[in-house]
Amino acid sequence: MTENSVNRKIIATTSNKRKHEQEDKTVNTLSKQAKREQSISKGNVVNKVKTNLKIEAKDEDGSDSTKQEEDDDVNGFDEDQGENDNTFKWWENPEDLDGEVKWETLEHNGVMFPPDYEPLPSNIKLYYDGKPVNLPIEAEEVAGFFGALLESDHAKNPTFQKNFFEDFKTVLKECGGCPDADIVSFDKCDFSKIFQYYDDKREQKKALPSHEKKKMKEEKEKTEEPYKFCLLNGRKEQVGNFRIEPPGLFRGRGAHPKTGKLKRRVNPEDITLNLGKEAKIPDAPPGRKWGEIKHDNTVTWLAMWKENIMGSVKYVRFSQNSSFKGMSDFKKFEKARELKKHIDAIRKDYRSKLKSSLMIDRQIATATYLIDVFALRAGGEKKDDEADTVGCCSLRFEHVFLKPGNTVIFDFLGKDSIRFYQEVHVDPQVFKNLKIFKKEPKRPGDDLFDRLDPSILNKYFQGFMNGLTAKVFRTYNASKTMQDQLDKIPNEGTINEKVVAFNAANREVAILCNHQRTVPKAHQAGVEKINEKIEEMLWQKIKLKRIMLQMDKTVKKKHKEFFEEIEDLTKEKEMEIVERWCKKEIDRIENKFAKDSVKLGYEEKSMSKVDFKEKLMKLKEDHDKKLSKAKELTKQYKSEALKQKYEEKSTYTIEKLKVQVEKLEERIKNTNLQLKDKEENSQVSLGTSKMNYIDPRLTVMFAKKFNVPIEKLFTRTLREKFAWAIESADENWRF
DNA sequence: GAAAAGACTTAGGAGTTCGACA
DNA sequence: TGTCGAACTCCTAAGTCTTTTC
């Protein structure tokens, strides 16, 4: 029996017992808040389907089953799937995972189209050569796409500008040209009025009162509801991207040659729907029709269209928490676990082949080493109209530098044009091989692995294990690294400390997989701000201790260590902190006043003049009061710092002050932890590995074993995506 | 057998919401 | 209670791998 089937059997035989135990376990792992979320989300699903998914399913005898469906919902939904629980627990019967046919019946309401273009007000125009011009509406829309992005990095990219302008001119030509000017030069176009218009709109939306925002959100949800769910084999499932992508400018990453090109509007005629043969075909928007209707039950998409930039196909699929995605994840991680049994043999084989007399074998062995040790991607061939990025098989001469001492520097752009830069020590034979692969007549621009492509490599892998491909190595090594890191964590400390330790393990995996993010623009400023905050908290703490001594000098003798740090804060440093604190406080008050004034300005039209005047007066009064209070405090703190004598409030007691000091100490500790996390995570993105590479059962195991609520480790979305793991792994589970 | 098409996963950034803190 | 930054979700580009076509 394979480990895989053992695992399945364990899941199946324990599932009933687990049903009864689940509630107790849930108490341990889910907080009240998370449970509330769960029940709300389940309730919503039932309600939404009851009221909105008005799909008329026909039974085999042709009768209308909609009523029965509704009755089922009312009665608690799908009783065969567990009492009061509408979740389809496919993981309790994971045998039916494979097979050509993916579903028996599939019903859905089609897709949701973006709103039609809303023309600009008549006073907002593109300026050409200094003069406002009237554009045909189709061209105005395209100019608007660019105008809205004017302040972004994209709009400053010459390729983006060039591609946009070419497509803009094409659209102009298609609709008869501009009546006021012959638009031929990008440099003569001034989009600033258009930018200002969209920017104001954004600001106005942001400044809307919260009840307005809530109302808008509710309306949006109402229109989306019919598309959010579908019926798969009679069961409700959530649809993922049911909103058709709106038109806009293509935002290719890195140096993409097509970045900035016009992404055209997708029409119903462009869309192919995939439904069950018996399912009702949803109505196309009035006066329109669908491109094609398919009944292909060997695939899992609900709709597709061809996009005009790269000519590739876009699909509407099931959401991440659907049974399809869950099963697929489960299979992926089981495949990676299967690799455990073969990895020793594979490593032995490729190590021996590193010295093979056949060039192809040497290249296969060396590439496998890089994929296994440095978690490189396979690296398929790219076309000229794509960004120049590489993976293992497509590495070129210039991406690999060899240094004495078997040291190799890899420097290339990987997926999404993310730089992979690593200086590493490699196996001496790998070093020799790389030297051979770079030997003359090869020169920059030439492939390092000139005999290889991913399909050759994957064929080699499949000789060891069915279904083994290059990407399985990444999943295997990521999850294996996580397991090893988690094994090192001692089961002690606070929940926060355990979470920090978990994140550190997660970070190791993210670094292995080279999951980066651009350092946020405000990162350095943020770090400085936190450091200032820590200084201010230390100042407050020392002040409190000094007050304690003012009140009772004898306490110092009893708690010598406790008071040691009060000497650390010099008069000069204290003055510096006080001045900074006071300046920030005054800035804060002034900023708030400015913001509130703008907000009131937006509301002016909706109130009487008297009301407006009254509100403005009140705002000014509040502001003046706060400002004078802040100025008084400034005076007080400065005088305290100068005299090194602090105001004692009548409510102070030694005990109360001690409690305040302890609270500050706790906050300083937490802020220091936060700073450490911020620094270490500034360039590393933990989410991608957590979502795609780390077997979620490892996280569940950690949560249960270390008594950390699962919602500290998985967001709501991840808890839904990995429901199967939360229910099937216990504290002893191992990858 | 190579290239193209098709179907799926993986990925970072933009936009939105949440929660800590003053 | 309001503000601001962090956390989270959404969006869609960019990969991998399989299947189909020529």
Textual characterization of the structure:
This protein has 735 residues and is α+β, with helices and mostly antiparallel strands. It has five domains: 115 residues, DNA Topoisomerase I, domain 2 (Beta Complex), CATH 2.170.11.10; 81 residues, Arc Repressor Mutant, subunit A (Orthogonal Bundle); 144 residues, Topoisomerase I, Chain A, domain 3, CATH 3.90.15; 82 residues, Topoisomerase I, Chain A, domain 4 (Orthogonal Bundle); 119 residues, no CATH class. The chain contains 24 helices and 15 strands. A four-stranded mixed beta sheet has the order 10-9-11-12, with no helix packed on it. Strands 1-5-6 form a three-stranded antiparallel beta sheet. A three-stranded antiparallel beta sheet has the order 3-2-4. Helix 15 runs antiparallel to helix 20. The longest helix is centred in the C-terminal third of the chain and has 35 residues. The N terminus is likely disordered.
Strand content: 5-15%
Under CATH, the topology of the largest domain can be stated as Topoisomerase I, Chain A, domain 3
So, CATH architecture of the largest domain?
Alpha-Beta Complex
Low-confidence stretches: 1-84
**Helix proportion of residues, in percent?**
40-55%
Count of DSSP E strands?
15
Structural class: alpha+beta
Quick summary of this structure?
Helices cover 53% and strands 7% of the residues. The chain has 735 residues and is an alpha+beta fold.
